[in-house]
């Protein structure tokens, strides 16, 4: 499961669709509707919020906005709290750097044209649900 901290504009089609599906699964976990993935480390940052379901809903809405911009039709009716208001979640600049390297390696292999579009970006913007703070990668990060 990869719930990207980088802004969805940087994701290629495959990553955007996978992020949508995986975050919908994360939403089910947070709603107690599945027994799997309940301890997935990427859920920690949502579980730590006052209203985890609202936080994941806001995240999903951000993915859907990017999908709309590309002409995709993601089913917003699947978002539990599409109009929720949730505080931004802190993400460290170290975490963004790890994800940026990871995404760039994926883009190099499967979507070099997308990688070319973002070749001058050294510090990516975060997903709108996140606020950048100084710090190392998250303790839950598993990327090498």
Automatic annotation (TrEMBL):
<dbReference type="GO" id="GO:0016829">
    <property type="term" value="F:lyase activity"/>
</dbReference>
<keyword id="KW-0456">Lyase</keyword>
<protein>
    <submittedName>
        <fullName>Pyrimidine dimer DNA glycosylase /DNA-(Apurinic or apyrimidinic site) lyase</fullName>
    </submittedName>
</protein>
<feature type="region of interest" description="Disordered">
    <location>
        <begin position="119"/>
        <end position="144"/>
    </location>
</feature>
<dbReference type="InterPro" id="IPR004260">
    <property type="entry name" value="Pyr-dimer_DNA_glycosylase"/>
</dbReference>
<dbReference type="Pfam" id="PF03013">
    <property type="entry name" value="Pyr_excise"/>
</dbReference>
